[in-house]
Each structure stands twice: as C-alpha cells, then as structure tokens.
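I am still learning, so can you show me any protein sequence you like together with the matching structure tokens, please?
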Amino acid sequence: MFKEVIKTRIQNLVVTNIIDSDESTIIIDEDIMDKADIMNGEKVTIFNISNGYNLDTFATKAVRHSAVICIAINSKNNQSINIGDNLTLLSYKYIENKLMEQYKMINIDVHAKNKITNYWK
C-alpha cells in the first residue's frame, strides 16, 4: 500500500515575472529545482501567501543561477498571481506505508532574491 506525501516544501519564493500563456507552469531556477529534487514537468502546488490563492501546475526549469520564479498563466484568468507575490511550493511523491515512520520531506527556505538560505530534511 502507498501513501501520497509531501516530497518538498519551498518557502518564500518571490514571483519575478509573469508570462501570458494558454498553459500554466511555474518556471524555477534550476539550482532550486535540483536541491528540491523536482524534475522538469513534475506536478507541483503553488500557494500564494500574499493572497491565499493556490494552483496545481507543473514545474519547468529556468536558467541555473538566474533566481527566476516565473509564472506562465492565461492573463484573461489571472487576477491571483502578481510580480512580487510570496509563494510556497509543494511537490509530492508516493511511498510505501512501511516507510512512513522514517520518511522526511525536503524543506527549503529562500530569501527575497530567490537564493537558498536554508535546507533540511
């Protein structure tokens, strides 16, 4: 039997750019994605701490060392994410029930310029 658990929690991401797109995605500095063990195309949930909005989408790699956190979203439907908003991002995975007690998720804090300041399991 398997359970879905939070694999990674990234706190304090700041939106640096918004792109008008028919398909939503969050584009993330490759350094952050590597440390968070998030793959290109992986499902993630974004929580906008600035206004309470949340969105299930997928992750896309940005240039390494760019500090980019870009949201691609249809501008006709977007009243919920703005440049400068503070986000928390969650990724998920499935693990066997017998491994639940040993399981530890990855936690990452970033500062206002989207650089990792703290990492722990």
Summary: The two ends are 24 Å apart (CA to CA). The CA atoms of residues 53 and 80 lie 6 Å apart.
